[in-house]
Amino acid sequence: MEHHEQDNYSAHAERGASSAPARDISEALCERVRQANADKTPLKVVGGDTKAFYGRPVEGETLSLAEHRGITHYDPVELVISVRSGTPLRELEAALDAEGQQLGCEPPHFGQSATVGGMIATGLSGPRRPWAGSVRDFVLGTRVITHEGKHLRFGGEVMKNVAGYDLSRLMVGAQGTLGVVTEVSLKVLPKATETHSLRLEMTLDNALERLAEWGRQPLPLSAAAWHDGALHLRLEGGRSSVAATAERLGGERLEASFWSDLREQRLAFFGDTDSRPLWRLSLPNNTPRLAIDGDTLYDWAGAQRWLRSDAAAETVRDAVARAGGHATCFTPQSEGGAAEPFTPLAPIVAKYHRQLKAQLDPNGIFNPGRLYSEF
């Protein structure tokens, strides 16, 4: 099977999809996990480490998946691809691009060494998320190393209903705290025939009204962000639909690079010269401006908001909770961010988290304390 997978991967490498050979180090990874579990030694699971800032710091022996890489199966006709966790995201995207396809969730990289495993661990999605889906929505199956060092497969390469926990999707956003994801199968999407980005000057209130109105219409929107007096839109789809919508909405042409700069936090709003902590607010998209001191960039048609503010963590979280959302601090505590980056769990939810952790990682060896100090 592995020989077949290597040949499959090489075929894509010949088309320029990869700059490094595929490599399977799963046996070595399993042995490291078995030994760590026996010794009750904490493991710090890492890939490209470009998202190390996201979450609480972990103390433990480094378990690197960076060398566990390669596309193991790709069927462009069925829009399905399977890839090892250490594979750089840019290589996966290059392989898909060669076939006119893409990752629908448009995940951020935050660095050249970003890996597929990091995408799964953090579950972060880009500007297209409200219209196409999140990382979790595209996961079909995974291979995971359990605390006992067993290499198990969950799910498959087709969408289907399952009984009990959907463990593959449970791994998305778990930050490596439930097991070591070694491989993932993903549903992918065809790239749009036509793309057009535009900028419309308008107030925030007007922008939220217009977005709510457009959301009830069959417009080819795939991204919407407001900041500094202007609404930025991306249209994707068939040529006639995109052209007709662009003519109807008007505005001025916007460089397509705006969206990758937003996704990768390269816009001036995210610049290092601003020392105020950066918060990610998740809210109902029609929520009015919140009464929090600071500057805000509105993404996902208002459902995701980036806030620069010196306000206390409790102040930010209370205001967001009252609006029906939650807040995550993207600035590490060492740089002035909140001590707990993720919203504290309600007692009943925390109870289920502890029970799940106890079942999947009873000795607490996988990225202990990464999400919350208690597990």
TrEMBL record:
InterPro entries from the UniProt entry: FAD-bd_PCMH, FAD-bd_PCMH-like_sf, FAD-bd_PCMH_sub2, FAD-linked_Oxase-like_C, Oxid_FAD_bind_N
Protein origin, superkingdom: Bacteria
Gene Ontology MF terms in the entry: catalytic activity; FAD binding
Residue ranges with Basic and acidic residues bias: 1-15
UniProt keyword terms in alphabetical order: FAD, Flavoprotein
Ranges where the record places region Disordered: 1-23
Pfam families cross-referenced by the UniProt entry: FAD_binding_4
Regions annotated as coiled coil: none
Ranges where the FAD-binding PCMH-type domain occurs: 12-191
PANTHER family: D-LACTATE DEHYDROGENASE, GLYCOLATE OXIDASE SUBUNIT GLCE
The protein's name in its UniProt record: Glycolate oxidase FAD binding subunit
Originating organism: Modicisalibacter xianhensis
Record lineage: Bacteria, Pseudomonadati, Pseudomonadota, Gammaproteobacteria, Oceanospirillales
